[in-house]
Amino acid sequence: MPKTLIEPFRIKSVEPIRMTSRAERERLLEEARLNVFKLRAEDVLIDWLTDSGTGAMSARQWGAIMEGDESYAGARSFYRLEAVVREITGMPHFIPTHQGRAAEKVLFSTLCQAGQVVPNNCHFDTTRANLEVLGVQALDLVIPEGLEPARLHPFKGNIDLARVEALLQAQGDRIPFGMLTLTNNTGGGQPVSMANLRDYAALLRRHGKPLILDVCRFAENAMFIKMREPGYADRPVQAIAQEIFSYADGCTMSAKKDGMVNIGGFIALRRDEWIEPVRNLLILTEGFPTYGGLAGRDLEALAVGLREGLDEDYLRYRLRTAEYLGERLEAAGIGFVRPTGGHAVYIDARSVLPDMPVAHYPAWALCNALYLEGGIRGVEVGSVMFGKRLDDGRETFHTMELVRLAFPRRMYTQSHFDYAAEVIAEVKEQAGRIRGVRIVRQPRHLRHFTCECEWV
Ligand code: F0G
Q1: Which of 120, 273, 308, 432 could be cross-linked to 179 through a Cys-Cys bond (beta carbons 3.0 to 4.6 Å apart)?
Q2: Is the Cβ atom of 123 under 6 angstroms away from ligand 1?
Q3: Do 107 and 150 fall into the same domain?
């Protein structure tokens, strides 16, 4: 058997990408105030800013789009998607939303009250923000291994059950439900094991608490379980996904990830008593319950995409892609969050710029260097994203300085990854030339999206 694991698709429609010169990129980055979020996408060669809504749809999905029923109420497309979601999740109630954060807003506004606290492995930013805006504390309780980039562990997304139990005993009356994020994006795209999920659900149940899953990347998580957890190697990945959902009382989904679509999301619920208030709020903010802010054609594309996202050949290639780039980085002596996760590789900027002071934002500097060297756009996950400038002018910094390269689904081929590995290795060779930045303008919240910088 040949060892090369190929892309399990061929290309039917192409979109040119534009090579720029180094001089051009220097000018473009200056014009963007040294913030890659402000670049025009057409000036980026390889865009690994996010895997969210950026992937390629299949010929089947484009075909299904023509079948979209755009009726305001009771569209055929709704019932088609509802049947797929019911089959995968086993949950009777399905509510479409325009994307993941809308699902979070509607569900949390219905189930939570100010003063409560929600445990999770790690909350994604919008999940945290949608809880905090309601006065609810979002508590991250991932296992300690999940916070050490170089530490190998097959399920670094697991939640620390001892800490959850202590929380339930000390403040059980404040907890409306427990959450778990599959895979754990904020912690490096790391999976949760079935054993951890099962034990967490049982622990919550003993205390009378429901479990809500954030399932953006549930298919990648299910494939990791198949590949790594004893007893699952011979189970179809869809059956593993069904078991995952069987432990939950509800879920929120950003379909822009494992739904394989460019826009969409949903809530699925097991409990009848939640459906009425959730639908009422949905009508107020998203739309009628049979379209939830999406067009009929979007519902059709998602009905097909959810099945394609569970295809095992696709998933094996998908997880191998990140692993492959990890191997290339390791050979070049570059540190990254290990093992590689499902949707992204997180480079440890400290391994490239060990001497740069944190106040010069090494991960931000590395992100800029990747663009200047090779036209690659990643995202800083470090002290610009998670640090703050206090009112007295002092700064707080993040514990890790990472650059996330997140891979759109079915979009880039192996040669794009080989090219990126060469660029990253070259950047490390030239690390002495990389300049840090200082922030000259920033908003109060989520400063990484819009801040303006200059070279130190
Ligand atoms: N939960 C997780 C774990 C996510 O990664 C995201 C989005 C959301 C919820 C929100 O979903 O964007 O559809 O509203 N993550 C993207 C990213 C933006 O780049 O990681 P959304």
Answers
A1: 120
A2: no
A3: yes
